[in-house]
Every structure is written in structure tokens, then in C-alpha cells.
Amino acid sequence: MCLTGFSRKNVLKKLLEFLCGLLAGSALFAIMALTFFDVLGRKFASNSIPGSLELTELLMVIVIFAALPLVSERGEHVAFDSLDHYLPAWALRLQSAIVNVFCAAVLLGLGWLMWRTGGQFLESGETSAQLKILKAPFIYGMGLLCALTGVVHLVHAGTPPVELAEGEGAAL
Known about the structure:
By secondary structure, this protein is mainly α. It contains four helices and no strands. It has helices at residues 8-44, 52-74, 89-124, 136-157. The chain is elongated, with a radius of gyration of 20 Å. The mean pLDDT is 90.
């Protein structure tokens, strides 16, 4: 136990939520501000912000990949659970472990591939078309966040599935 009474897992969970939330929230706010000023420029000055579409695309990459570990940590992925109430508890635990190990393997592999691609982009000096922003830092970030999400799934593979509270989730 830590001195504050929080377990190491809770501290790491709070740190993950804070850092990924801050990253995703900041990028989303930047998209909102960029769009606002771009529309103002178009409406009142008949001139848009150069490269605003390109910046929006790069910021969307940050929003999506920074939110991915949070979605996995909270178990908020889309799930087909219509048959779950027919399965025994041991089968649900096994299913959860298998799915989480599979997701972890795929995300860790994807993270590794993105890290390699980032290195290739850095070597070749690959940049965005209009603003000439280096793409490598974004690819490296995507790789790191995918790997972090894979680690989250590995942690979840060793824990029993969490029951959704009444009203959580969606029914189709």
C-alpha cells in the first residue's frame, strides 16, 4: 500500500486516466478552437486558416489513440452480450481472459509495427503535405498508445469481468 492508502494499481489507473484524458481533451479542445477560428476567418475575412484540415486530421489521431487506453480500462468497447446470461460464470471469466489476451497481443503487435513505421518515417523525413509537419512523432505516439492499451488488456485478462450496473451499456 502507498502512504496515502491507495494501491499501486489505483495510482497507475488514476495516472493513466489523467494523462490520456488530458492528451485527448487538449487535442479535442484544439480541434474545437481551430474550427471556430477557421469558420470565423471564412465568414468575416473570406480567408480560412492555412492547413486547418491537415491540423484537424493530426489532432484527431491524438484524440482517438489517447482515448483508446481509457476505453479499454473502463471496458467501454462495443460488446455483443446477448448470450451472456445463458453462460455460467466460469465460461464468462474464460471468455473475458481469452478476449483480453487476444486484444493485448494484437495491440502490442500493432504498437511494435507503428514504432517501426515511425522510425522509417523519421529516416525518410516524411512530412504532411501542406504544412510539412513531421509524421514520425505522431506514428511513434500511436505506437506507444497502442502498446499501452495492450498492457491494459493484459491487466484485465487476469481479473474477472466486471458486471455492468443497471442502465450501463446499450441494448439494440
